[in-house]
């Protein structure tokens, strides 16, 4: 009996060891598999294949409206697209034969979600810490290094202009940008931020405290945390003067008391536009106002809003005589100086109770609307995706998790019931589909500021793009009208034409209040950093008659849907061509 018990005990010990070994092997194999799958996901991130925006409607769903594109990732044979009440149907593209751009665009919408992606694209370059050897300051830089200074974000000395490049900032880039705008000093902070001004900061800091390496220039100091590396660039201003852009704003009726309206003034015989602009630039004012021999500097204000221009003939003698139309009119110029009354931005100090979307079809002006909202409210906007180009130019909310509720609203191009119902309310931005399609096609093939080549426009990519993306333009609006809980519909064209009234409406929808001067500052900085020059494609017409017929039916469908929900219909310029 004892012998049998001993054998049983020996067997159990061996079994226990065997189970332990098998468990360890299982865990190791699982870990290796997980690591390999993670690597595969990262490698496939740039070529994802989700299909998301097609707008087919199966034959059996006629009369039910445009279908949710997410329910059609595996379309049945013979899908149809229902348009308008006339029940005219167009065949949609079979997703198994979609052009490669369609898979690419859909993958962009998915892979740019930052639930994990932003961790892999974060800048990993190590920063030098305090106590390490000092970085170079003057080896390859044209300006004169003035030292390391303390930087108070609440009351900056260098506040004449602000630039961000969170990936490629260099000392030379900051110096040249400040010199072109007629500033004397250029200061860099956090390795990526550039500030310009005409006054040297008052509080000096230890040289080793400016220990942030420039994002685009290894070994060069670009300030630090609340520290500025300051350079004098006055010697560069002569070479940069020819590149400065002084813009004629028009002829305006002069306010009753110019000295009360404008903080700085100069009386100079034989006054020229350049003399007045230089004077106002040194004073860090964005407007130069000329009336005869008198030069005034200031900002757009309630007293002088620049909204109601006068006939240019009324200012025809203003520049040479002091009595043009009895001195009632003046010439106004935009100096190279940036209006900084609305450039300060931050994250919400407490989480927002209302989760607001800024929704639009791609190419409808979402980035521009975010620029306006951020500068009007002083708070960052977030994004459902991550766009490095936007983040690098100062849209810091790009890198914040889209559900953090630390941003005033969240950009999205998504549609479908699930994605829409995540938000409590939304600003729905709609743009003419003809313009939206061209803008998105340019962005896809040439970036935020470029233009697609003539060869690309003439390739098969363009007609395929129009066929599928036009339906997405319609489905995006219709889905938000159907599933959105609380909507403010804003037409891009109305916002462009009546900026202040429409922006006020958007800000009120966000439950924010702003001053008139801040709105005027936004108007003065209305373009932002991502506006394409319209000269290249002003008279370009890439749409065939077949394309126009397709798009026009979508326009009529969306217009009818808007009116059916008691919203204003589409602007007149959307009327079918």
Automatic annotation (TrEMBL):
<dbReference type="InterPro" id="IPR027417">
    <property type="entry name" value="P-loop_NTPase"/>
</dbReference>
<dbReference type="InterPro" id="IPR000863">
    <property type="entry name" value="Sulfotransferase_dom"/>
</dbReference>
<feature type="domain" description="WSC">
    <location>
        <begin position="142"/>
        <end position="234"/>
    </location>
</feature>
<dbReference type="Pfam" id="PF01822">
    <property type="entry name" value="WSC"/>
</dbReference>
<comment type="similarity">
    <text>Belongs to the WSCD family.</text>
</comment>
<protein>
    <submittedName>
        <fullName>WSCD1 protein</fullName>
    </submittedName>
</protein>
<feature type="domain" description="WSC">
    <location>
        <begin position="245"/>
        <end position="342"/>
    </location>
</feature>
<dbReference type="InterPro" id="IPR051589">
    <property type="entry name" value="Sialate-O-sulfotransferase"/>
</dbReference>
<dbReference type="GO" id="GO:0008146">
    <property type="term" value="F:sulfotransferase activity"/>
</dbReference>
<dbReference type="InterPro" id="IPR002889">
    <property type="entry name" value="WSC_carb-bd"/>
</dbReference>
<keyword id="KW-0677">Repeat</keyword>
<dbReference type="Pfam" id="PF00685">
    <property type="entry name" value="Sulfotransfer_1"/>
</dbReference>
């Amino acid at each position: 009996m004892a012998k049998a018990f001993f054998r049983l005990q020996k067997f159990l010990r061996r079994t226990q060891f065997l189970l332990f070994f098998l468990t360890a092997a299982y865990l190791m194999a699982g870990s290796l598999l997980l690591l390999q799958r993670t690597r595969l996901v990262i490698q496939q991130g740039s070529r994802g294949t989700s299909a998301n925006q097609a707008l087919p409607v199966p034959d059996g769903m006629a009369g039910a409206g445009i279908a949710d594109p997410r329910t059609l990732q595996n379309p049945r044979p013979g899908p149809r697209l229902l348009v308008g009440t006339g029940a005219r149907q167009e065949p949609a593209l079979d997703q198994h034969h979609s052009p490669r751009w369609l898979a690419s665009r859909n993958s962009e919408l998915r892979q740019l979600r930052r639930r994990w992606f932003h961790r892999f694209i974060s800048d990993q370059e190590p920063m030098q810490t305090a106590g390490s050897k000092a970085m170079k300051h003057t080896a390859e830089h044209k300006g004169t290094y003035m030292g390391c200074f303390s930087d108070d974000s609440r009351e900056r000395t260098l506040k004449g202009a602000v630039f961000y490049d969170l990936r490629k900032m260099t000392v030379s880039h900051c110096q040249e940008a400040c010199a072109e705008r007629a500033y004397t000093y250029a200061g860099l902070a956090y390795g990526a931020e550039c500030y310009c001004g005409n006054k040297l900061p008052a509080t000096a800091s230890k040289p080793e405290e400016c220990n942030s390496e420039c994002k685009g220039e290894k070994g060069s100091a670009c300030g630090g945390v609340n520290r500025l590396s300051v350079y004098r660039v006055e010697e560069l201003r002569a070479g940069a003067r020819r590149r400065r852009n002084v813009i004629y704003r028009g002829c305006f009726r002069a306010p009753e008391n110019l000295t009360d309206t404008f903080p700085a003034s100069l009386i100079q015989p034989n006054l020229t536009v350049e003399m007045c602009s230089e004077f106002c630039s040194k004073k860090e004012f964005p407007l130069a106002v000329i009336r005869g021999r008198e030069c005034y500097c200031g900002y757009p204000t309630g007293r002088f809003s620049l909204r109601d221009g006068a006939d240019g003939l009324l200012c025809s003698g203003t520049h040479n005589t002091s009595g043009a139309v009895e001195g009632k009119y003046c010439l106004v110029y935009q100096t190279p100086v940036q209006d900084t009354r609305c450039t300060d931005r931050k994250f919400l100090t407490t989480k927002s109770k209302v989760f607001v979307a800024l929704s639009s079809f791609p190419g409808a002006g979402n980035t521009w609307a975010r620029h306006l909202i951020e500068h009007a409210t002083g708070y960052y906007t977030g994004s459902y995706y991550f766009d490095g180009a936007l983040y690098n130019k100062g849209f810091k909310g790009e890198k914040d998790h889209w559900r953090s509720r630390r941003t005033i609203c969240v950009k999205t191009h998504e549609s479908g019931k699930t994605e829409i119902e995540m938000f409590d309310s939304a600003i729905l931005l709609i743009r003419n589909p003809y313009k939206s399609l061209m803008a998105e096609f340019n962005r896809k093939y040439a970036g935020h500021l470029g233009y697609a080549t003539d060869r690309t426009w003439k390739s098969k990519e363009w007609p395929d793009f129009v066929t599928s993306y036009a339906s997405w333009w319609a489905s995006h609006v219709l889905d938000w009208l159907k599933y959105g809980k609380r909507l403010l519909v804003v037409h891009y064209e109305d916002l462009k034409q009546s900026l202040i009234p429409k922006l006020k409406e958007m800000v009120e929808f966000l439950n924010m209040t702003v001053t008139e001067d801040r709105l005027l500052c936004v108007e003065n900085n209305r373009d932002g950093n991502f506006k394409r020059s319209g000269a290249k494609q002003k008279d370009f017409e890439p749409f065939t008659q077949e394309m126009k017929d397709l798009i026009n039916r979508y326009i009529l469908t969306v217009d009818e849907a808007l009116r059916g929900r008691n919203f204003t219909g589409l602007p007149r310029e959307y009327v079918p061509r």
